[in-house]
Specification:
By secondary structure, the chain is mainly α. It has 5 helices and no strands. The radius of gyration is 18 Å and the shape is elongated. The two termini are about 15 Å apart.
């Protein structure tokens, strides 16, 4: 009975890897943006639509942190093969970011929105890759955490 319970938990964890990564990305993005808006003050929402080095760097940091947190969540939930799971998730996220950057050029947007989407895609990809580089040895050694 114990073995069946463990197998069921592992299956549920595998199913939750992708949704948890997406939710972690969105939560990290929202929390970072709220902190950034608090930093700019109440008028920050209007300020965010202007082109400014401070605003652009703030957005890039937010996207990079969100990518890093998304990778952390997917590796933390995967029951086994965490390194392989991280590589697969990094590939999926980077493909998504490439499509987001391409769509930013195809859809007519303001210059600031295009900069944010393309820059955010690049820095999110960098956050994803940094997570794998920083944690590669622990991910390779940590094949399972339930057994």
């Amino acid at each position: 009975m114990e073995k069946k319970h463990s197998i069921l938990i592992n299956i549920l964890r595998w199913i939750a890897v992708l949704p948890a990564s997406v939710v972690a990305y969105l939560l990290a993005y929202v929390v970072s943006m709220v902190i950034q808006w608090i930093n700019y003050g109440y008028v920050g929402i209007e300020f965010m639509n202007t082109i400014s080095v401070t605003v652009i760097l703030g957005h890039l940091i937010v996207y990079g942190l969100a990518g890093y947190v998304a990778m952390y969540a997917s590796a933390a939930i995967a029951p086994k093969a965490k390194f392989v799971t991280s590589i697969i998730m990094a590939t999926l996220w980077c493909i998504f970011f490439i499509f987001a950057a391409i769509s930013a050029f195809l859809v007519e947007q303001h210059l600031m929105q295009t900069i944010m989407v393309v820059g955010g895609s690049v820095t999110s990809s960098i956050g994803v890759i940094l997570y794998i580089c920083n944690n590669a040895s622990s991910l390779k050694n940590d094949e399972t955490d339930l057994e």
